[in-house]
Records
---
Amino acid sequence: MCRWLAYSGTPIRLEELLYKPRYSLIDQSMHSRQGVETTNGDGFGVGWYPVDGPAEPALFRGVGPAWSDANLREIARSTVSPLFLAHIRASTGTAVQQTNCHPFRHENWLWLHNGSIREFAKLKRDLVLAVDPRLYASLAGSTDSEVMFHLALTFGLRDRPVAAVERMAGLVEAVGRAHNVDNPLQMTVATTDGDRVWAFRYSSEGHSRSLYYSTETTALQRLYPDNARLQQLSEESRLVVSEPLADLEGAWQPVPESSYGVIQKGADELGRFEPAAP
């Protein structure tokens, strides 16, 4: 399917995570170790916020493989951000086109997804009709992921993010049952308003795609005092990834099945994710 990462913390160059680690996101686009597909070459995208505070994020997306895009490399080595999302895509059936590449953006929000809505073509009409008419015009592509984003916005993502995503998941499952589609939803999702990051791991069958979060920075700095990159990060720095970027013992914690997490100033949160039936 896809691979992604979400970073929040000390401003860093995008290349520090996209290119430099041993198992960087660019490496995973060619040699994913935990994905359904080894190769994720059906487009890519990165969305980032400016250093001087939350605002509408910048977005760069392409339809080719991430590993060969010279413009992505230029942007990654010259752009510094305290919060960014990045995604490499393996299509589950929809077209390879720029409007289908993640992250998706609406005002100050970004959204990306790994997984699928099973038999999406059969469920699509009912799901799209549930999108708020005021948001419908901003549906630009043809993916299930973008529809999921607009449903979450419809259900109050801007005010109650966890509840909105739970309502979105509940609707997908209800529509799936109505059309006799077993286990319709598979997802790991990251979304952000430029201040906090929410991450979700859930699937209807209870066997979700891989997802990890980084151990607290201060603990990692004690474990690896000679690692210059770690020593430069603040205690608020945190990373969520589809699969680890490096083999550092103790650096990665698996996100539990059917869970959500919130990266924010102060204490982060980890809670139970429970779809809400419509």
---
Amino acid sequence: MMNEKLTRKKNRKPKIVVIGGGTGLPVILAGLRAKNADVTAIVTVADDGGSSGDLRRQVNAVPPGDIRNVLVSLSDIPEMQKEIFQYRFAVEDQSLAGHSIGNLIISAMAEMKGNIYEAIQVLGKMMMIDGHVYPAAEEPLELHAVFKDGTQVSGESSIAKHRKMIDHVFVTKLDGSKDVKAARKVVSAILNADMVVLGPGSLYTSILPNLMIPEISDAIKKTQANVVYICNIMTQLGETENFSDANHLEVLHRHMNQKFVDTVLVNIGQVPENYIDTEKYDEYLVQVEHDFNGLKKEASMVISNDFLELRDNGVFHDKEKVVEELFKISFDVQYYGRKFETNIDTI
């Protein structure tokens, strides 16, 4: 009977919600999709740089860039169609310079449907995505940072430029109102998940903008899902300079006014000296330092491994290794209960 119960639970698709933005999110989503998880992506809408920033200013659109990359990562359409969707116009193309076709399509669909939520659902069907994609909110948000010296700056793309220590961040609507609502189905997805994954991604500008939406914050505090944080490998210019892995968790918990991360994944692989192309990857500084005693104060379980992937003179998380660890956790969650208690560290 016990073996039958184990087999039945092991064969059920784990419900995994991944929250964030930037380049790390689609990589993890693609890996989870390949492992046949029931995946939901909740994507930040506070980006104001590049093509996404131009479109949100020109047509009052929700920034589409992170949404575009997530749709592609979960899509079953042929590679050629993905390449077309991702194609970015050259700098000499005047008004279209820097815009990707996918960004334009998402913005156009949002205008046709009257909102970004329905636009994403229609595009999800067209692109045959395996999973669910929801914006964190159904309107563009403004990210604000308050620095340790008391000064404040608005705009996601402006924060790092100041090179100041950040005290905290918060989000508003574009008119300054703090009455920010989560998009449809976001809260229910978090509450019904087996696992909620944060990161990898920029701490202050990719992860926290989602958590600063009150309904999302409340749902993460209430969920019985195991909440997993994938700690960044490198410190980031103007955001996490001189941070240890424990400092990342401390910031998350301080913003939410309670310890809510159950499990943290930490890379212990060493980045070779002078390996990174500092011109191409100019936002990354040095490898995040380890503070295992600090980590154990912040999370029930610390899982450390060589999660490092070195390619193109850049530093990335090894998708297969990270996803393998997430699936091990998800199996324990399904068998022992979603918010299982443990003090076991694999370091």
---
Amino acid sequence: MIDVHCHILPDVDDGSECMQESINMAMIAKEQGIDKIIATPHYHPEFKYLKGEELNKVCEEFKKQLKENNIDIEIYLGNEIYFTYDLIEKISELDFYCLNKSKYILIEFPPTNFPLNLCNIVYELKQKGFIPVLAHVERYIKIHDDPEIIYDCIKTGAIIQINSSSLIGKQGKEIQRFCNLLIGRNMVHLVATDAHGSQRRRPMMKDAYQYIEKKYSKEIADNLFINNAQCILDNKEIIIEEPFEKSMEKVSFLKRIFRR
């Protein structure tokens, strides 16, 4: 499996605190069946997180340590970009990393100041040559209140990511139910760990993969955990199914059940 959202690099943000913890996270990931990880440290204008070439040096040293410890996991570099209202205007000046030097960018939004014009933001990022990957959309109350926001964003060109822990109920049954609502409408393209440590928010994906395989199909599980993520690594277009309109929600869920 491929994890496209993981805070595994040591001492660069609020994720892993040291190299040994990063190594421990990698060992957990390997046991889970993860063999490729895009490290996505936070890129936040108000916090002094490591960025630019210094961040790349940490990534290279981590890869060296993995090799010395015989942990066979490929590490790629990206950022999780925190949205601010001047992001679009300043984006060409910022030294963030796209996901493995691709056109895909991972972006999160302020939960208490969620943008009302999300679809327009997706459109403007697309116009600038990026494909926005919207991180952990199940965490936003605004989207729970109006899932059509995600439908419109997908139609505009966004890629949607949810967290593996949310999918299997670790964040509560309501968030799990919402994840299934989105999947049932073809409105999820990636499942990732958003892991932050080896003791808390660990890089766990196996249970989530098996959950999708059992509830929907192996084909869907492979797309959410492997195939679409590989497209990002290869900088290729993700071929996504048309999202279902709200009126088609129950029909789409039944179609996926009987696909198994």
---
Amino acid sequence: MVKTQDIQIRDPFIFPDQKSGNYYLFGSTDKNIWGKGTGFDVYVSPDLDNWEGPYPVFRPEEDFYSEENFWAPEVHEYKGKYYMFATFLRKDNGCRGTGVLVSNQLMGPFKPHSTSPLTPENWYSLDGTLFIDKNGKPWLVFCHEWVQVSDGQICAVQLQDNLVDVIGDPIILFRASEARWPTSFQHKRFPGRNNYVTDGPFVITLPNGELGMLWASFINNVYAQGISRSRTGTIQGPWEHDSEAIYQNNGGHGMIFQTFEGDFKLTLHAPNDTPNERPLFLDIEINDNGRIKVMGESECKFNKR
């Protein structure tokens, strides 16, 4: 057994499995996530505190389209199978993108489902997540990286029902600078340019029918987690933004899940420093009006104007 505080992981994603009564913790598990990737592992726990693992769930074959930057895996159950959406650095052109893997079971092995990343070939993209709209249509929501566009974007593109390819071109949902809480920064690779980060989008449907989106950026060079919302309940928006981040303690890339007892939790990694990053599980409250309270941190109102 390993304790939560002893797990080095970035971009944590929890799959609560009702069938087994266990929580499956996926994430960026390579010790050196900035270099050559070895794959993805999973940890399994009945209580979010004591974990078994790590167990390998994906190891790439030699002909796989990436060998670096294996980041931010999310696992979603869809039409009887388990699909992993993850970021990979392409071998052919050095751009990052989100690809899809598939398995018949949560423990893998996961195998390539898409023949290449589904994000645009020449875009630097990352942190794709699956969202199923009210009509049952699948969407890929992802970030168009600041390294390419300066002002990081959150984008969406509709997927084919079999999740093998996209339908049409991506649409820009919003840019990081449109929210009040992120701050710009300078980078030596891009002298004189103001940059804004978008990381880790995750979309939930609120009790009042609106959509809430978690996403991460930086406040004065400190990693932070904020929330935007679509009052129309559609992924196309328009999207509005809370004025303050809900987590500002050098952590982010979060997602929300429900425990077996029916409580809601936010998980993210903190601090944002390798090799010290650990998964955090924060209690939250969501009321019928779409209002969220992060216990012990701060309060966020999805319907705040």
